[in-house]
Write a structure and sequence with these properties.
Radius of gyration: 22 Å
Structural class: alpha+beta
Largest sheet: 6 strands, mixed
Strand content: 25-35%
Number of helices: 9
CATH superfamily of the largest domain: Nucleoside Triphosphate Pyrophosphohydrolase
Helix content: 25-40%
Shape: globular
CATH architecture of the largest domain: Alpha-Beta Complex
Order of helices and strands: HEEHEEHEHHEEEEEHEHEEEHH
Length: 304
């Protein structure tokens, strides 16, 4: 989920400000309006992203400039923040045709390629909302290259949207794996997931996995094997999925960050994946954690 974005991000095209301006006015260009980071989708049996055309935006008083996402079949696609609108359905003139959904919900309803575009659009809009001012001198910055960067007019510093790397790992030993439960409502749902944490500065993926597992579970990890990755636009992370082998078995979890960390037998995890375990829930298919857990439980990956 959130991977498979089909857009050509137009690295060469976005360098031409005149071209970008022309595309913003082109009646064939498509715009994805995000309202308070909620995403418009069609109100139909098979929902699609709710793109609108130039004429829909021209009559609205939206101050935000559009962000160029890329090209598909020669057509420019943009995202635009319309959060200042009080009633986006009415002002966009889409009553009944589109509905604004929270991005996680929308992604589960959309085709994979469109969920990938959603991830790019949401992360881009969110980053510009959070980074209006220069981190060097504090002046109000301005976007360039269709939103690919912001430049400070006072000190000329360039700022680029960031993606934060996060390691997420299923640690195993024989027919058992470690799953953890963060604090909050997940404990009420009996939800356990793979252990995860941000990669620190000057740290490799393997080092980050070993550190995070030691910090959260108190378990020493040996070999680390990469499985897959997932863009996670909340707000903008890259989840780096791994499997790892445990060198120790005693759990001493961090009770400040984690509500619980424990070993689970393979048969109990398989029942949870099938929705048949009343004592254990695991993340749904929208999350990479689900696929890491499933890959271990079904034997898709060899013992690490």
């Amino acid at each position: 989920m959130f991977a498979g974005n089909p857009l050509d991000r137009g690295e060469r095209e976005r360098r031409d400000e005149g071209w970008l301006t022309a595309q913003e006015k082109d009646p064939d260009s498509r715009f994805l309006p995000l309202w308070r980071l909620n995403v418009p989708i069609s109100d139909s049996a098979e929902p699609t992203l709710g793109w609108v055309h130039t004429e829909v935006l021209s009559g609205m008083r939206v101050k935000a400039a559009p962000y160029f996402l890329g090209l598909l079949d020669g057509v420019a696609h943009f995202a635009i923040d319309v959060s200042e609108l009080e009633d986006p359905d009415r002002e966009l003139g889409v009553d009944g045709a589109l509905k604004f959904e929270e991005a996680r919900t929308a992604a589960t309803l959309l085709a994979p390629a469109e969920a990938g575009i959603l991830a790019q659009a949401r992360s881009q809009v969110d980053w510009h909302m959070r980074h209006r001012f220069c981190g060097v001198c504090g002046a109000l910055s301005r976007q360039e290259r269709g939103g690919q960067m912001r430049r400070c007019p006072d000190c000329d510093a360039q700022h680029f949207p960031r993606t934060d790397p996060v390691v997420i790992v299923v640690v195993s030993s024989g027919d058992r794996c470690i799953l953890g439960q963060s604090r909050g409502r997940l404990s009420e749902m009996k939800m356990y997931s793979a252990l995860a944490g941000f990669v620190d500065q000057g740290e490799s993926i393997e080092e980050a996995v070993r550190r995070e597992v030691m910090e959260e579970a108190g378990v020493e990890v040996g070999d680390v094997r990469y499985h897959s990755s997932q863009p996670w636009p909340f707000p903008s992370s890259l989840m780096i999925g791994c499997h790892a082998g445990a060198l120790s078995t005693e759990i001493r979890h961090d009770d400040v960050e984690m509500a619980d960390v424990r070993w689970f037998d393979r048969r109990d995890v398989l029942r949870a994946l099938a929705g048949e375990n009343e004592e254990l829930n695991v993340p749904g298919e929208i999350a990479i954690a689900h696929h890491l857990i499933k890959a271990w439980a079904t034997g898709e990956v060899q013992e690490v």
